[in-house]
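Quick log. Single chain, no ligands specified.
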Amino acid sequence: MRVMRFLSLRASVPAVSASRKVYGLALVGVVALAGGLLPAAGAASSSAVAPELAPLVTYWDGSSWTQQAAPNPDGWGSLAAVTALSATDVWAVGSYGIEGQDGKALAEHWDGASWQQVTMPTPTKAVEVHFYAMAAVSATDVWAVGAWAGASTRHAFWTLIEHWDGNSWTIVPSPSPGNSAEITGVAALSKTNAWAVGTYERLVRSIGQSRTLVLHWNGKSWKRVASPNPGTGFAELSGVAAVSPRDVWAVGTYYSKHHSQRTLTVHWNGKKWKQVPSPNRGVASQLLAAAAVGSKSVWAVGYFNKYGGGRGGLCLVEHWNGHSWRVVPAAARTGQARLNSLAVLAGNDIWAAGLQGLGPGPYAPLSEHWDGSAWSLVPSPNPDWFSNWFSGISAATPTAVWAVGTSSAG
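-> predicted structure:
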């Protein structure tokens, strides 16, 4: 049973109303959009024809978004995550090449003048690589996390963690439990304290179950830490935000005993992870990313399905005020929309990025800004491609914000 063949949420866009992974189904590799099928990142020939997928990079200068040119190796590239240390030191990661044949890790760096590809290792015999998140402590301490698969094991993925030390990217060994596993979120407090979260699959009576996965970096190695698994066989963590060594949040989704998809928020108090109640909207809700202002102000974003039956999704924004999680109205409230990533500068200066559309496709990039009182829509570039979307966002200063994603030819 092909249960865990991962969708790259930040590389390929599934129907907004569906979970990033398709639980119990094998609906991965292509994504249905108006006008045809959109291959997952690099899932086609890299011949000398017009590119089918290209990295999308946009820059906020304090007044407007502008698109920046980015390398597109093989003509099949996609960016999934970004982290900005300063206006002249920004990293973005993704993948390029032919998914399922020679998919490779992609790292690109902004030096204040241009984006340049930087060599990034790909696991030996990997034919598929996906990155989902980044975190940085300093210019010489940057993390990128995701998953990879080999030619003979495309039904299963292994966790992938890579580290930049100021000179080169290297693969760092990471636990990969179960039959398949991926890491979708990372947060770094210091050189000796970082957290990564995701999902792994286990078989129970020959039936695959998706369970939460939490890893901790102690300065020497990544170790697995026990994490809550509510529900009835499906639970996943998508994002993580760290306030202090004793105050870390992770968010995701799980299926309740009534088989409805619910938000999942868990908290680390320095000793253990514990589930904390969080609100839901519609018939299915999922949180994809988290970011913290402080111990009494943590944000999480994702989407919810109002009607069911795959009839669309709406942005979901939730806020922790030190006592409870509450839903905060997003700016995008119609059509299909989802928020994939968050960037915090201050309590009154927060960015969220994702996608929006009026049907099953095409999609357009979506950016929203929190000014301390409300979320507002901020117009963003929509290149002349069939479909475009943001997967990650990061802010160095109020006048230096980057959002990255993918442009698709359809």
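The first strand starts at residue 30 and ends at 33.
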